[in-house]
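Page 42, continued from yesterday. The earlier attempt failed because a stray header line got pasted into the input along with the sequence. Redoing it now with the clean sequence only.
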Amino acid sequence: MSQIERVRTVFNEWAENGRAEGMELGHGPTAIQAFDLLALAPGQRYLDIGCGNGYTLRWAAERCRDAEIWGVDVSPKMISLAQDMDASGAGIRYLCGQFPHPEIPPNYFDAIFSMEVFHYMPAIESGLEAQRR
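This time it went through. Structure tokens are written below.
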């Protein structure tokens, strides 16, 4: 089983057993500080790499209604959970798959957030280079 398949399996299980909500509670205080530093403004494009249950996507939708908001996660069950928890009506775009994802255009986003994703990647350098683009 590849590294990505193992990660997908673990996070699918976490989505099913309530660990996603625990991650949100545990990471929330630090994540909100980092998110605030992004200073997302109206009309900007925001991407969360490894969006999990979508808590930063919901923050972006609450704070900046006309931002373009995208989330990508390797776990289909996390993506499904994020969609189920989204009541924003903000038209958040959810992508299921590995980052970099083929539907994510280069040089497109104004703000990118990621919490504990890169240490799961089989090749950190290429993931960081893709985020830079």
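Notes: The chain is about 45% helix and 15% strand.
Reminder to self: strip header lines before submitting.
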